[in-house]
Prior knowledge:
The chain has helices at 2-12, 18-21; strands spanning 23-29, 32-38, 43-49, 55-67, 73-79, 94-101, 107-112, 117-121. With 125 residues, it is mainly β.
Amino acid sequence: MLFACFLLLTACSDNFSEAQLIGEYVATYMGQTATLSLNADNTYKHIVQLKSGQRLETASAWRSSQVTSGPTRTVVEFTNFRVIPSLGHAKAKGWATEVERTWLGRIQLCFDSDVGYCYVKQAGR
């Protein structure tokens, strides 16, 4: 029972360190796959594999910050971020998102959670 309470509290935490964020995240949307790698030097690499086989790759910078208005939560900001084209969004100059956990406790970054376009951190990466 004690372990279940700990797991529940950990899964609900919205406060993350940069060390926790570093790693590889994967999102799939309409048969397309995007891999987002956050590096310790605050750079990222984003690779989108389209259904057509075309591969789109971008790289730039990311940073995290703590938002303290209301409950403390972590926000990650990306410069020159390019989303999966089928979402219909033009290339953005940036993207900012709150860091969340999946119901299984894995870290996720959602671009559009309404359509299920979330990058989920891969175990051990």
